[in-house]
Design brief:
single chain
Amino acid sequence: MSAQPPFGDPNAPQPTEEEMQAAYDAQLKQLRVEEVVVDMIVSLINLGGRKAGLVPGTEDEADAVQVRIAVEGVRALLPLVDEALGENAAQLRDALAQLQRAYVQLSGGESAPGGAGGEGGADGAPGAPTDPDGPGPAQSSGRLWVPGQ
């Protein structure tokens, strides 16, 4: 049995730039935007989990601002591929919820992006009166993401 180099024959001719471009174009032709969006969501969840200190050994990397950005990114992208994911979307929503909970803990109990956290009045105090005809406390504080706004 002959041993093969890990990346093919080193004596084989290297592809030309045109051949490499053609191969790249062929890959792009097969690629769907939904796949890229899902990959981005998974990357944001993984990086957000790391920045939340959820991955063992990354506790010193905790950064609430980075976690918030990851959460907001996932929340913006997930609706774009929710239908295409079907039942698999639930796994990403669960991971997002875990990331939101981690953000609340990391940020000292502030509401997570997307409204995870405590309910309260307009001033944030539980039970404080609110304007029944106006936006709710989370929306008026800017913590509630509303599609199209």
